[in-house]
Amino acid sequence: MLSVYEGFFSGGARIVHTDVVLGLREGGQYQRVLSVHGEMYREATRQPMGEDACYRALTAAGVEVTSLNRTLGLTGDPAAFTGTELAATARAMAGADVILSLKEQPLGLLNQPGLPRRPVVVCLHRSDPENQGPALDELKAAVSDGRVTAAVCCAESTRAAYQAAGIPGGLLHVIPNGVDLLRFRPDPARRTLLRGSLGIPECAPAVVFAARYAGMKNVPLFLRAARAWLHDDPGAHIMMCGAGMTPANPGLHADIAAAFGDAPWLADRLHLLGVRQDMETLYAAADVVSLTSSSGEAAPLSLIEGMMCGAVPVSTEVGDCAEIVGERGILTPPDPGLIAQAWARAAACGTEYAPAIARSRERFSRTRMIASYAALLDRVHQEMSTVARLPESL
User: Fold this and answer.
1) Which one of 92, 98, 163, 205 has the minimum C-beta count within 10 Å?
2) What is the pTM of this model?
3) Using one digit for the tens of pLDDT, what is the confidence trace for 38-79?
4) Alpha helices in the chain (DSSP H)
5) End-to-end C-alpha distance for the chain, whole angstroms
């Protein structure tokens, strides 16, 4: 099995896909990963492949990871590949029975003429295919050409959106996201340790916002809600983490100034933590996990991970958030005052939501997710084995 990534950088889709690769390897499948880019510049953050947590997890488990060593944002025409790059891709594909494409973006490479013909399963993690630039056209081209034999959708909203965009429904299979329940669980010791390091009192209500600094996450809305909540509750704290969630990001600095301009002292209880490798600790330290996204979300990993650590989810209604939150938390309209009120209720009444969260742990398990991926990939491989392998492209 060969997985092809656009690149390694902080984000839920890469975390999920990397967990799938590791889980399939644990089940006995031989796994390799090819990354188009060796370094990424996103969300005001430079992210070299070798420093990424997913890359380190894969290589530590013995998964071979290679790269075409492009740099997103600095390489020339992203749709033009050199002979050397195509030769490296062909070598990586030649030994694979099935190719997994993490999202649509790598299909721009896999659609290049002259590469080996292998069945491609594309993994889709958004609910707005029309906002993926040329990637949707690459997906349609790969489907029309017969390269894509199946597509994994992480949410029902993903399946509905891609079917509406013209992808045949018979290719779309929903496998909901799951997480490691041994890692993501309530942990009083971690809660106390992190709160102590940040100066957050044990009894103070705290919200965590785990997201990259991107337009779809609607960071300005989150900050307006944070300003309202911190004003109403002088003991409350906010933790923001993810790519670009640092004081060095000028965009975030401007957003904070706009939201807190009339009361800058309130931002003293706003903790900007950047990319973290201990998300289970941040979630365990929080009472509420929140998202204020306006588009694009399908099955946000932060809501699931946060819930499994005991934080009550509060989210705007986008993608499958309504299904994920359900009776386990609170859905809000995109209104900062109402979001702040929801945080206050969730933090004060967390014990009311705890039984429903506990009952849902099996539903959101990594074991269930990986078993579903394995079954689909086995079916694709078996179906392709019953017919002659497609001829190599000329």
Assistant:
1) 163
2) 0.93
3) 998 877 778 889 999 999 999 999 999 999 998 865 555 677
4) 12-26, 53-60, 83-94, 107-110, 135-144, 156-164, 188-198, 219-232, 250-260, 279-285, 301-308, 321-325, 336-348, 350-359, 366-385
5) 23
